[in-house]
Amino acid sequence: MTIGIYFGSQTGKTEMVCAKIKSELGDSVTDPKDVSELGGDPSQFSEMDGLICAIPTWNTGEEENRSGTAWDELLEKIGELDLKGKPVAICGLGDAAGYADNFVDAMEELHRYFEKAGAKMVGYVSTDGYTFTGSKSIIDGKFCGLPVDEDSESEHTDERVTKWCSQLKSEMGL
């Protein structure tokens, strides 16, 4: 089983979180890859047995292109892929103190396009323990992936990643 880890990043924080995920999951996942290296073509996602995708939120309050990374150019193409039944987990980075009304909003946008492609979305996380006022990434009362706040709550990152990876082992059959 090949689970690919993909990220978009402006500051390197999303890449760092992906390295932690890789460390937790070991050989059951690929080395993290920056989506800017895909040349605008997400077709290799179809070759994977599952995906873990990490996205930051930069364009807060927007309805589209919320990440400010190469993910924004891939969204429509992702929605056109056939990922029927493939497990996909999303991790989103955001700043709950500085952008409390739009915390990890880009995570929902990525989630929506993978769901459109038929992916089996996994890795939902309770909102308990997070301090924020609003997020587009809450679906049925839970975050649609793992929120990470390296700006205001970095002391919780390791614990949150470890717990989420344990959840993914079960949900993705790793």
Gist?
This protein has helices at residues 13-25, 71-79, 105-116, 157-172; strands at 3-7, 33-34, 50-56, 87-93, 120-122, 125-126, 138-139, 142-143, 146-148. By secondary structure, the chain is α/β, with parallel strands linked by helices.
The major pleated sheet works out as: 6 strands, parallel
Q: How many runs of DSSP E, i.e. beta strands?
A: 9
Radius of gyration: 14 Å
Provide the helix percentage.
Answer: 25-40%
Architecture blueprint of SSEs:
Layout: E1 3-7, H1 13-25, E2 33-34, E3 50-56, H2 71-79, E4 87-93, H3 105-116, E5 120-122, E6 125-126, E7 138-139, E8 142-143, E9 146-148, H4 157-172
Helix pairs in contact: 1-4, 2-3
Structure description:
The protein contains 4 helices and 9 strands; from the N terminus they run E-H-E-E-H-E-H-E-E-E-E-E-H. The protein has 174 residues and is of the alpha/beta class. Helix 1 packs across helix 4 and helix 2 runs parallel beside helix 3. The mean pLDDT is 93.
